[in-house]
Amino acid sequence: MSKVAPPNPLEMLAYNIAQMIEDDQIVYVGTGLPMVGAILAKKTHAPNITLVYESGGQDPLEGQMPWSVGCPFTYRKSPAVLEMAVSFGQCAIGYVDIAFQGGAQIDMYGNVNTSVIGSYENLKSILPGSGGGNDIGSLTQKSVLVGLQTPDRFPARVDFITTPGYLDGGDSREKAGLMGGPIAVVTQVGIYDFEPVTKRMRIKALNPGMSVEIAQACTGFELLVPDEVPFIEPPSDEVLEILRKEVDPRGVFIKMPAR
Fold first, then answer.
1. Range of 104's domain?
2. 259: confidence class by pLDDT, cuts 50, 70, 90
3. Which residues are catalytic?
């Protein structure tokens, strides 16, 4: 029997992010669990990836877990430190293979809201805004959305489109002149993709202990469900040890919040 505690939901989310990354890719990293997943990938199955941080740090040497993409740790002995606008330019000219971003709301078509909750006439919350979200979502060929899945965070339609996904579904993104689009959504419940024709969010695989019913209960719209739903293999004890002792030993992002 394993002496290593099973992964908590945040650790499982970080592990799933890592599994989206292939060796030798240039990876655009956002704040939070995307940083954890990217560093975990580099320490395990993808040692030759290049980490590009939103604020401009290019592939810093190994050090402490950054607090954000603007943390000094993201610049540690980097071969180059660029301005944020230049890092967005890397996306635009194709020097990014995969990008990760989060949001306060993600809807059935992969549109992301980081601007406001409610309407401008009836504001409930004012959020930080786009930052680099729109640039990442509009300019990269492959983006992965990351979020904690609850019905209010996964509504049928976001209150405000900060970063376009597939807009109204179908070919509406293409008609808007945007390339690519989100290829997946990673949450504590599992991994989702988008049905090729309608661009509706669809279950791709679920985490251990989850079910279609749980996934639907955590969502504010009807998920598309394939005939067979695979389950994701949990991380090995070795990977969990690396995650907990080497990647985020202080539990900055993978420690579950106390009640």
1. 9-247
2. low
3. 54
Report how far residue 124's alpha carbon sits from residue 24's, in angstroms, rounded to the nearest whole number.
43
Q: Structure tokens of 174? A: 């293409």
Number of domains in the chain: 1
pLDDT at 191 over 80: yes
Tell me the three state secondary structure of residue 184. strand
Contact between residue 176 and residue 164 where contact means Cβ atoms under 8 Å apart: yes
Single-letter amino acid code for the residue at 173 = R
Provide DSSP, 148-196.
---TTTSBSS-SS-SB-SSTTSTTHHHHTT----EEEEE-SSEEEEE-T
Spatial distance between the Cα atoms of 169 and 200, rounded to a whole number of angstroms: 7
User: What distance in Å separates the CA atoms of residue 112 and residue 131, rounded to the nearest whole number?
Assistant: 12
Interatomic CA distance for residues 245 and 258, integer angstroms: 20
List all residues 6 or more positions away from 226 whose beta carbon is below 8 Å from its beta carbon: 202, 203, 204
Task: Tell whether 257 is covered by a domain.
Answer: no
pLDDT (average), residues 29-46: 92
- Exposure b/e, 2-27, CB count within 10 A at least 16 = b: eeeeebebbbbbbbbbbbbbeeebbb
**Structural domain contains residue 157:** yes
The DSSP bridge pattern shows strands 26-29 and 98-102 to be parallel
Counted residue by residue, the chain has a size of 259
Tell me, what CATH number does 130's domain have? 3.40.1080.10
Q: Is 1 exposed, middle or buried (0-12, 13-18, 19+ CB in 10 A)?
A: exposed
Token match 């808007």: residue? Answer: 176
Q: Is 233's pLDDT higher than 60?
A: yes
Distance CA 160, CA 164 (A): 10
